[in-house]
Amino acid sequence: MNVLLVHAHPEPQSLNGSLKTFIVDHLRHAGHAVQVSDLYAMRWKAVLDADDSLDGAINGRFHPELDSKHAYENGRQSPDIAAEQDKLRWADVVILQFPLWWFSMPAILKGWIERVYAYGFAYGVGEHSDHRWGDRYGEGTLVGKRAMLVVTTGGWASHYAPRGINGPIDDLLFPIHHGILYYPGIEVLPPFLVHRTGRMDSARYDETTAALAGRLDTLDSTPPIPFRRQNGGDYEIPSCILHEHIAPGVQGFAAHLRTDVPIAVVQPEPESEPASSHRLVPASA
C-alpha cells in the first residue's frame, strides 16, 4: 500500500516524534511505500489567505472559496498545496498523527486541511439539486482511500469515557472523522489512542508500539466507522436531515452511525500506573 503520514508535533524527541519513526519503519519493513509530511519540520504555512493562489485575490478582495476554486481549476495554486494534493492522490491510506491540544488537532494540521482541501479537490464537487446535494459524506474525490488517526492525550482514558469530564473521545474526534475525512469520501478507521502521555515508561512504550503495530498491520482489513452516506437514502435532500424513520429518537453525532454494521473495537488503554516512574517523554508529548 501507499501510506501518507501527516505528522504534527514540533519536537522530534517527543513521544509523537518517536511514534512517527516507529510508524514509518514498521510500514516500510512490511513492504509498504511511505511518504511523510512532517508539518513543523516543513515549516508548513498554516494560514489560508490570498497568497495560496499565484494570482492573488482575483476580484480585488480575498474570497476563500472562489479564489481556491480559481487556483485549483487553472493550475495556479501555491506549489506547496499542489505537492500535498499529489501525495493525497498517491496514497491508499492516510494517517494523521497528532497530540490532542485544546480538544482538537494542532493549528498547523488544521491549516494543512484548510489549504490542501481546495475547492474542486475535496469539496464543491458533484450535482447539487433536489435529488442530490453534492458528492460528499461517503462520496467524493477521495473515495477508495482509508484513514486513521493516531492521537495522544495527556489525560486518562477515563477522562474521555462516555461520562468522562472531557467528553467522549468519539464525540471530540467526530468533526475530524466525519467532517474532514469522511466528507470527501475517505473510509475512516477507529483511531489509535495513547492516553496519559506524561506517564510513559519503557515497558508501557513497548506495549503501546506493539498495539500500534497490530493496527498498522490491519489498515486494509479493519472495518471502518459505519457512517451513513448522505446520498444513500437515509437523508432528506436537499435539507440533509435524517428521515424520521431512521434512528428515531436519536440525536447528535450518534444518529449518523449505522446500527446494522458492527463497529470495530479499538485497543483498550491500561488505567494502571506504569511499573516504573521513569519518564521517557515530557507531558506535552
From TrEMBL:
- Which keywords annotate this record? Oxidoreductase
Q: Flavodoxin-like fold domain: which residues? A: 1-209
Pfam families named among the record's database cross-references: Flavodoxin_2 (PF02525)
Q: Where is coiled-coil annotated? A: none
Q: Which domain of life is it from?
A: Bacteria
Q: Which InterPro entries match?
A: Flavodoxin_fold, Flavoprotein-like_sf, NAD(P)H_dehydrogenase_qn
> According to the UniProt entry, where is the signal peptide?
none
The UniProt family comment states: Belongs to the NAD(P)H dehydrogenase (quinone) family.
Report the PANTHER family cross-referenced here.
Answer: NAD P H OXIDOREDUCTASE-RELATED (PTHR10204), NAD(P)H DEHYDROGENASE [QUINONE] 1 ISOFORM 1 (PTHR10204:SF34)
Query: What is the protein's name according to its record?
Result: NAD(P)H-dependent oxidoreductase
Give the originating organism: Marilutibacter chinensis
